[in-house]
Specification:
Layout lengths: L5 H10 L3 H5 L3 H17 L4 H24 L5
């Protein structure tokens, strides 16, 4: 597996949560995060999205950092 850039993964997730997961090859998780993000924006109209939106963004950023640690050799 080609070494991935964690900064690029984080930037992609800031643009659209889930893009970083897709970049790292976790396509299914990335699509689920994108779907959840879009649902959160829609549900903002009924207030619950105000709570869900930051949770999804934060989860996607933490997950990409943990994924990077998983795929990066210790001696790299």
């Amino acid at each position: 597996m080609k070494k991935k850039n964690v900064l690029l993964g984080l930037i992609l997730n800031l643009i659209l949560p889930g893009l970083g997961q897709i970049y790292y090859g976790n396509t299914k998780k990335g699509i689920m995060l994108i779907f959840g993000y879009l649902i959160s924006w829609v549900s903002i109209l009924i207030v619950i999205g105000i709570i869900l939106l930051p949770i999804i963004i934060l989860y996607s950023l933490v997950d990409i950092a943990l994924t990077h640690r998983k795929f990066t050799p210790v001696n790299a």
